[in-house]
């Protein structure tokens, strides 16, 4: 894999999965002494202007991450052009992005590409679904981090 310096994490609403993944990846990059990374998140049907869900904030806090300043944003053509790697949570999101932005082919991948994980949406589910989400995202990002080194 070529050297990657910009990563966009994408889910549906940009209030559960992708904000957690964005914040976790930023921490991992920092702790790995990798430099000059641009990391962000967006949603394909974002709840624009909303905070992360309370359960996302809670699970992040339990993992020493802070989502309190997160504000949901919509995926745009600007994002798709700007970021070298776009990581999605589910296959349907990959297909949606590649259909809407055909030039994105080759840069959109499942976050669970290396371990065959799919990160299902915990939105409006009980807290244990968010704990499971965080565990899966953490494992997936560890695999990606190795590719960035």
TrEMBL record:
Q: What class of enzyme is it?
A: hydrolase
The reactions it catalyses are:
O-phospho-L-tyrosyl-[protein] + H2O = L-tyrosyl-[protein] + phosphate
Q: Name one GO molecular function term.
A: protein tyrosine phosphatase activity
Alphabetically sorted, this entry's keywords are: Hydrolase, Protein phosphatase
E.C. number(s) listed in UniProt = 3.1.3.48
Keyword Glycoprotein on entry: no
- What Pfam families does UniProt report for this protein, alphabetically? LMWPc
Q: Which InterPro entries does the annotation name? A: LMW_PTPase, Ptyr_pPase, Ptyr_pPase_sf, Tyr_phospatase_low_mol_wt
Which residue ranges does the record assign to the Phosphotyrosine protein phosphatase I domain?
5-147
Q: Does the keyword Hydrolase apply?
A: yes
Where, by residue number, is the active site?
11, 17, 121
Highest taxon listed in the record's lineage = Bacteria
| Protein family (similarity comment) | Belongs to the low molecular weight phosphotyrosine protein phosphatase family.
Please give the name of this protein: protein-tyrosine-phosphatase
Tell me the organism. Silvanigrella paludirubra
């Amino acid at each position: 894999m070529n050297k990657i310096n910009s990563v966009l994490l994408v889910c549906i609403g940009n209030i559960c999965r992708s904000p957690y993944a964005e914040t976790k990846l930023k921490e991992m990059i920092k702790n790995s002494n990798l430099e000059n990374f641009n990391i962000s998140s967006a949603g394909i049907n974002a709840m624009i202007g909303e905070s992360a869900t309370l359960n996302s904030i809670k699970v992040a806090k339990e993992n020493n991450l802070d989502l309190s300043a997160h504000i949901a944003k919509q995926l745009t053509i600007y994002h798709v052009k700007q970021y070298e790697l776009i990581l999605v949570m589910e296959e349907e999101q990959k297909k949606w992005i590649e259909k809407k932005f055909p030039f994105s082919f080759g840069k959109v991948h499942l976050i669970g590409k290396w371990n065959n994980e799919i990160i299902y949406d915990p939105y409006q589910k009980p807290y244990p679904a968010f704990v499971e989400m965080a565990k899966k995202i953490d494992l997936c990002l560890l695999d990606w981090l190795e590719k960035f080194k």
